Amino acid sequence: MAVSDPTQPDERQPDERELSPEEFNAAVAAVTSAFGDQTRRDIYLFVRGSDGVTAAEVAGRFELHPNVARHHLEKLTGGGYLTVEVDRPDAGGGGTRAAGRPSKRYRTSEIDATLAFPPRRDDILANLLAHALDLVGPERAAAMADEVGYEYGLGLASKMGPAEGHRSVHSALTAVADALTAHGFAAHAEARAGSLTIVAECCPFGDAAQQYPHVVCAVDRGMIRGMLAGLYGDTEPRFEQSRPDGDDHCVARV
User: Fold this and answer.
1) Residues ≥6 apart with Cβ < 8 Å to 167
2) What are the pLDDT digits (tens) for 174-209?
3) Judgement on whether residues 39 and 107 belong to the same structural domain of the protein
4) Which of 200, 228, 229, 233 is the one with CA 20 to 30 A from 158?
């Protein structure tokens, strides 16, 4: 019987590779954004051990103001670690619903199974898809990519705030940055020259973004527009800086 040598690399996992410094920083940013606060970690474990909780239940359990409890829950939701469902209480009979504010119930999502770093993109597949889009022409490819990103962003927004009224622009941008960070962009919202921006310090698409920026960057822009549309309302952010163009960060200004 062959005995494996623990000092040697495990060749049974050919798909594993070492994270680049940029990928590692983005991964740490994603986990830190969601779990860097001790109270938030405790809240996550509380939700994980339940069949779903409301912000009021979290506030009571941890002796927090309801707004603080809601902030922690939304941080975890934006990172993809929790899902949220909206339910209106019955008005009393006949199955009708009350007209009051709906109740939001938070549950752990499927990502709970691993708590892994942001998923690494397969460079070969990304380049194959980008090249396939490139064959239809730059303008059409960018339009298709933007549409895909926009629909995906709308879907993310619906999970962060289903059946909820639009947020303030600051709250929406913060939520968008949290979601982008969970996807490996290491993003944050900040004020610049009198307006609000989303700054992404990393691109999880790697070389594909350098080779096919008009396609891959269009997906990113569509995601941001879609999330903003779902959380704040239709808007056209200005994308002023881009890493494929040689800038240090990607910047979208609202």
Assistant:
1) 161, 175, 231, 232
2) 889 989 988 888 899 998 878 899 999 888 887 778
3) yes
4) 200
